[in-house]
TrEMBL record:
Keywords: Pyruvate, Repeat, Transferase. Residues 17-135 form the Rhodanese domain. GO terms for cellular component: cytosol. This is 3-mercaptopyruvate sulfurtransferase. InterPro entries: Rhodanese-like_dom (IPR001763), Rhodanese-like_dom_sf (IPR036873), Thiosulphate_STrfase_CS (IPR001307), TST/MPST-like (IPR045078). Gene3D superfamilies: Rhodanese-like domain.
Length: 199
């Protein structure tokens, strides 16, 4: 199966019943909105069949830093409990602002999932197309997931600075942008592709 970086709402609507597709709701409150109950928002309405990928709960809470990656075995257990199968094509989405879906995409790729795409436009785009939502939690059978950590997906600040000095043409981009144009997405793909080639 060919996997692209992004899929559209029309594509997902057409493939939503494909047994090789799994949908992941990765909504997360952005800074200044910490009082939101995103888990409840998921229960109030999500793309049909989507499980809730709680980035906060899936972080390493033993670290003093926020949202650090959990241990591979911890992540694998959480994915199995959600019913996520690492061999399927996973479609992740957020509200449509690309705030948290790229983070979920990166976490899944870092722990060995090869087929992951982001829903372009997110939940907002899905709703703009008047596509149906589903309420309540989605309960799936236990998934098959064995995390294999990719050390090349994580670098230290010193590594980034060293590479920036060596190769001045490389592009550095903040991981969380509220608005990311198609041109910037295309540029970002060129650099990320060195670590995560498309399949």
């Amino acid at each position: 199966m060919s996997t692209t970086w992004f899929v559209g709402a029309d594509w997902l609507a057409e493939h939503i019943d494909d047994p090789e597709i799994q949908i992941i709701d990765a909504r997360m409150a952005s800074p200044g909105q910490e009082d939101r109950n995103v888990a409840q928002e998921y229960l109030n309405g999500h793309i049909p069949g989507a499980v809730f990928f709680d980035i906060e709960a899936l972080s390493d809470h033993t670290s003093p830093l926020p949202h650090m990656l959990p241990r591979p075995e911890t992540f694998a257990v959480a994915m199995r409990e959600l019913g996520v199968n690492q061999d399927k094509h996973l479609i992740v989405y957020d509200e449509g602002n690309l705030f948290s879906a790229p983070r979920a995409w990166w976490m899944l790729r870092t722990f060995g999932v090869e087929k992951v795409s982001i829903l372009g436009g997110g939940l907002a785009g899905w709703q703009r197309d008047d596509l149906l939502l589903e309420e309540g939690a989605v309960e799936l059978p236990e998934g098959e997931f064995n995390a294999a950590f990719n050390p090349e997906a994580v670098v230290k600040v010193t590594d980034v600075l060293w590479q920036a000095m060596k190769i001045r043409r490389k592009l550095l981009m903040p991981a969380r942008l509220h608005v990311l144009t198609q041109k910037l997405m295309n540029l970002a793909q060129v650099y990320v592709a060195d670590i995560f080639p498309e399949h």
